[in-house]
């Protein structure tokens, strides 16, 4: 049985990865310090002998007994309000945490995949964003703690690949949504659905003309799985190119939930990217991957999840 270590395993994406690797017949070790994650996301896996959980901060020294075939580093606060609340931990998990995990991968002869992000492109001057664009990031702005940690993470990972011959993979993830997001994580989708359910007005930041491109979680996990098993060491965008303005997105949620609430406008956070859409040519050509779930389908499933969460 192949053994995989998934950091951030109790988080939104990490827990979906745990499910996928269990389904594919792997022994899965989830590692998490629960700073933004929840045991609820993985409690259904605890009865399985091929699943283990390590409660650990990966920014500190990591010890894992036994062999490892793959390491997927997904530990990091990911929503703007989380990483603004815990900026130093965010910088540490992307830098020190990544270094520890690369060292572990080298010691075990494991292949390492890191969760990078569309935020490495910052507030982009190239649209849509392809992997050859170097980005427009403000290192000392509020988002810099996340963006620069992720850029360092990519640089460190490439260095281990080049200098130590380590097998590495880099996925640049664009805005992803689905069940197990936290209602209070401040990201646009949980914020809007939460507000609609609670009978509050939907808070659109700025004039709502900024764009994002939302990918359903199952599509993302499939792209990551294929990238891990590919032989490609350079960054690959994985996301859904179906772009929408945030105002239109809020209107879609109003329609979906049937709420009588309206949109209210709040100040745009500093350095909020004006537009974002992945160029997924590379993922299509290398991995034969493209998203399959439409926003209409994905939003319906996610809305049901949030309703159930609030009822139970
Ligand atoms: P999440 O907050 O739900 O999950 C992150 C997990 O990492 C949490 O369970 C948290 O407790 C854990 N963690 C944080 N710091 C840790 C540390 N020092 N040691 C151990 N565990 C730690 O966020 P998510 O949306 O699932 O994001 C997962 C990864 O994907 C992150 O690396 C994020 O940067 C990346 N990503 C996510 C998105 C997205 O749209 N969700 C987009 C781009 C990149
Ligand atoms: N946003 C918004 N209202 C909210 C939360 C977010 O208008 O209550 C906006 C935010 O300013 C950004 C977009 O929605 O322009 C997506 O924000 P999110 O935090 O989901 O992701 P990111 O900015 O990291 O792409």
Automatic annotation (TrEMBL):
| Cofactors named for this entry | NAD(+)
Keywords of this entry? Decarboxylase, Glycoprotein, Golgi apparatus, Lyase, Membrane, NAD, Signal-anchor, Transmembrane, Transmembrane helix
EC class (word)? lyase
- Which SUPFAM superfamilies does the annotation name? NAD(P)-binding Rossmann-fold domains
Q: Which GO terms describe its molecular function?
A: NAD+ binding; UDP-glucuronate decarboxylase activity
What is the protein's membrane topology class? Single-pass type II membrane protein
Q: Kindly list the places in or outside the cell where this protein is found, as annotated in its UniProt entry.
A: Golgi apparatus, Golgi stack membrane
Spell out the coiled coil positions from the record.
none
Supply the InterPro entries for this chain: NAD(P)-bd_dom (IPR016040), NAD(P)-bd_dom_sf (IPR036291), UXS-like (IPR044516)
What Gene3D superfamilies does the annotation carry? NAD(P)-binding Rossmann-like Domain
Q: What is its main location?
A: Golgi
Give the matching CDD domains. UGD_SDR_e
Pfam families in UniProt: GDP_Man_Dehyd
Pathway, according to UniProt? Nucleotide-sugar biosynthesis; UDP-alpha-D-xylose biosynthesis; UDP-alpha-D-xylose from UDP-alpha-D-glucuronate: step 1/1
Q: Which domain of life is it from?
A: Bacteria
Q: Does the keyword Methyltransferase apply?
A: no
* Every NAD(P)-binding domain range: 5-301
Which EC numbers does the record give? 4.1.1.35
Any GO BP? UDP-D-xylose biosynthetic process
Q: Which GO terms describe its cellular component?
A: cytoplasm
Q: Which family does it belong to?
A: Belongs to the NAD(P)-dependent epimerase/dehydratase family. UDP-glucuronic acid decarboxylase subfamily.
| Protein's recorded name | UDP-glucuronate decarboxylase
């Amino acid at each position: 049985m192949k053994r995989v270590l998934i950091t951030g395993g109790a988080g939104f994406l990490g827990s979906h990865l745990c499910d996928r690797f269990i389904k594919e017949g792997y022994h899965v070790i989830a590692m998490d310090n629960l700073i933004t994650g929840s045991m609820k996301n993985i409690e259904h896996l605890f009865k399985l002998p091929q699943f283990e959980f390590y409660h650990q901060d990966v920014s500190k020294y990591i010890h894992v007994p036994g062999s490892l075939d793959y390491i997927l580093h997904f530990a990091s606060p990911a929503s703007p309000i989380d990483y603004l609340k815990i900026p130093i931990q965010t910088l540490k998990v992307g830098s020190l945490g990544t270094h520890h995990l690369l060292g572990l991968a080298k010691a075990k002869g494991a292949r390492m995949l890191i969760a990078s992000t569309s935020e490495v492109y910052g507030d982009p001057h190239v649209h849509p964003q392809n992997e050859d664009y170097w980005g427009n990031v403000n290192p000392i702005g509020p988002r810099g703690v996340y963006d620069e940690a992720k850029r360092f993470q990519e640089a460190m990972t490439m260095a281990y690949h080049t200098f130590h011959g380590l097998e590495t993979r880099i996925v640049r993830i664009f805005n992803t949504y689905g069940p197990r997001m936290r209602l209070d994580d401040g990201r646009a989708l949980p914020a809007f659905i939460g507000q609609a359910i609670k009978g509050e007005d939907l808070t659109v930041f700025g004039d709502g003309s900024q764009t994002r491109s939302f990918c359903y979680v199952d599509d993302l996990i499939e792209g990551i799985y294929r990238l891990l098993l590919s032989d490609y060491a350079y960054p690959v965008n994985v996301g859904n190119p179906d772009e929408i303005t945030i105002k239109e997105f809020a209107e879609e949620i109003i329609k979906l939930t049937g709420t009588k609430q309206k949109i209210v406008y709040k100040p745009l956070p500093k350095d909020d990217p004006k537009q974002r859409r992945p160029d997924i040519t590379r993922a299509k050509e290398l991995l034969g991957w493209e998203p399959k779930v439409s926003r209409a389908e994905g939003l319906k499933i996610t809305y049901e999840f949030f309703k159930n969460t609030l009822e139970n």
